[in-house]
Amino acid sequence: MSKPTSRKGLSLKWLELFQVCARNGSLRKTARETGLSISTVSHHLRSLEDHLGVELFNHSRRPMVLTPKGHVFLRNIDVALHAIRKATAEASAGDLAEARYLRLGTIEDLDSDVTPELAVYLSQKMPDCDFLYHTASSHEIIEMLRDRELDLGISTTPPERLRDLQDQPLLRDPFVVVLPATVEPPVPEIIAGTSKLPFLQFSSDLIIAGQIEAQLRRMGVALPHKFECASNQTLMAMVAAGAGWTITTPLLFSRAKRFQPMLRMHPFPGKRFSRTLSLIATPDCSRSVRDIVNRKIRGSLEQQVIQPFVDSTPWLKDQFTLID
To answer: Which stretches make up the HTH lysR-type domain (predicted)?
Structure first.
């Protein structure tokens, strides 16, 4: 690699594309994520290397891997780009109307009512902003936030530390037992596994499944894994058909309106436990954007989900609540 002829004109675009490509290890993935052509991405990366006079990638390897100098360069620009993004967010924090781009990820638990209402509200408050809405599992949303593929996310708070992400707890969503409407055995017997009704559970790779498994383990209960599913709607359909019982939450139960006449929700016996939904942001996300999303989400949860449920199920009053 030849020596650089000039230190002038280092492009921020080069640095941003280098950061994305270093994370992806692929020109194709980088092009798809940034909306550029593969040849354009390659040209920018070559321009950066020519400018610096060093090879940042081993171009003979697939997937692309960083050279030792590339690793050092990435470590330094990660800090610099974070500072630039944070400064940009703070500079525009006071004027939502000038916001240009927002990438928001939400769990599907909010898809029925809360997320559509939020989308309409934000489009009115931020008329010149381009929005990207992404629905995924909590694990996926948190990883996308860590990789800076999203600016904001609404997800179940994970058990591990969020490192550099900033979380604002929103909702306490208690765990409940859901049985077929035709089944009336004591719930403690169901939980203990002494009834013939099988336990239908969430897929083990989901955060919610880990929380339920940990609670059952604390109780000394080991239930056979007869059926696992990532979809709450499918679980509710199976329970409604009398195929078994499950542990879920009021928020998830509220989405299963079609099956609710065939279901009965019961308090979890013994010590209560719950999951927390949080608004999670990258450090460079504008505080004013975080605040407006936080206020709108809280209002929607209270009016559309919590209050109707508490009215019809009074025993949830002190459990299913917003977190101040």
So the answer is: 10-67
